[in-house]
Design goal:
It is built from eleven helices and six strands. It is of the alpha/beta class. A hairpin with a 2-residue loop joins strand 5 and strand 6.
């Protein structure tokens, strides 16, 4: 039993009050509906991040896992923001606890997968993807969810979802939010790798730069 009720509670329980001029009843949010979509490249990077998380029997996909997945799968796209590739590679191996041998395995494994997926990419004809049940079996950590929420706010692209427009996240948007997280030690170390934040932000926020498929 609720002993104290505010004005909002009373209005919600009284249909006559809701029908008064000026009253608006907000529809409840459906947690099953997505709040964003990922580009095909970023989805594949997250798939690799899931594999990396599973390789260490983790319960959650961490920010470092996704960052490593983005590096391995989307390096051709993101390399322009770094002057020193070896520096960022060493950092990622350290923070993801991946040995050089395992790191090389991931790169070789995903290079082959990326080559095999070229035909799929061309046949899809879309630059966004929906996550399958297999790809989302391991949940994202709260920190990673917060990063993606921040990327939703700066993403310049939208896609239709049943009549509503939701943001489409690119690797640049996510990378920018990771690097700009003031409370993360990973972010601090990432910024120290000579990451060009000015150029990254310009690309991440530019609506004229259509995401690659």
């Amino acid at each position: 039993m609720k002993f104290f009720r505010g004005k909002q509670d009373k209005a919600a329980s009284d249909p006559k009050r809701l029908r008064r001029k000026g009253d608006v009843a907000a529809a409840p949010m459906d947690p099953s509906r997505p709040t964003h979509r990922l580009t095909a490249g970023l989805m594949r990077a997250e798939r690799l991040a899931t594999m990396i998380a599973r390789s260490r029997a983790a319960k959650f996909i961490e920010v470092a896992d996704l960052l490593a997945g983005m590096y391995i799968y989307e390096w051709d796209r993101l390399s322009r923001f770094w002057e020193n590739q070896e520096e960022i590679e060493e950092l990622l191996q350290t923070i993801c606890s991946i040995s050089p041998q395992r790191w090389n395995y991931w790169i070789e494994h995903y290079d082959k997968r990326r080559h095999d997926e070229e035909l799929e990419r061309l046949s899809e004809g879309h630059w966004v993807r929906h996550a399958s049940a297999e790809e989302t079996r391991i949940e994202r950590s709260s920190e990673l969810q917060a990063i993606l929420k921040g990327a939703e706010e700066i993403a310049p692209f939208r896609d239709d979802d049943g009549g509503r427009k939701i943001p489409v996240l690119t690797s640049e948007c996510v990378l920018l939010c990771i690097a700009r997280n003031p409370q993360s030690e990973l972010s601090r170390k990432l910024r120290e790798t000579a990451l060009d934040l000015t150029q990254l932000e310009r690309v991440a926020r530019d609506p004229r730069r259509a995401p690659s498929r």
